[in-house]
């Protein structure tokens, strides 16, 4: 997969891009149209053209195999070596990308006119649309307390429509079990690929650490978009109230003054632990608050891929470190 910015931009400076108001986009009922609006309206020229031709950049050679297009043969190289070689172009280097989307009940929360799951689905649809244009194979796995839907990564007509259909299904589960989906992705995806987890990450950090380390040890690139409602980032309660846990259904009484400090300390500590885990494993973690522009997520993805391209050697070292973390975890049990 190749994600590069337009010539005017640089990885170290903000890219010239539009800011997509989530409220305006959410009024578009069709999920594919939302994704198309985000990708085509604000990222024209961001990536290489997906079309064959002069815009596809030559990268390397590979030996000729029966059935290859003879137009790709390098006759000059054949004259020198008496062996057939095919020019391998950038469009042949597509990768498998998996969108792992949390559809637990906590994702149904929203203090705005739309919920976290509306925002998350839109982001997932945008990535699917964008990666399809990149000629990458895209798959989706949704989960709550168990794996709900799984569609393998493919690149064929009608596949995007199938992905968007799965993403549009209503929430049904209760709790969140992030262990099962990450284990399933790691076991199913043999080739190195890109795994994008979209979740509010209301889950124990230790479970997340173990699974992220395993994914990284297998050579996968991992990115996380943590989706939070503004009221979750800044706790606000006007008066003493009875509140309900969306996943367990348990009711509890909260005094706003007492709860505010406890909540903020717990939230900040959990956030800090998540960042430490992701930093140690070279996992890109981005917190997306649902009132933020939707195009920021694609911007993060592009910048992350640029850093990956420039830091291949370092990624190899971090993958070995992740393998060590997995072995250490297993040895301690």
TrEMBL record:
For the region Disordered, give the residue spans: 306-333
Q: Pfam families per the record?
A: DUF58
Q: Start and end of every VWFA domain?
A: 94-267
Looking up SUPFAM superfamilies in the UniProt record yields: vWA-like (SSF53300)
This one is known as VWA domain containing CoxE-like protein
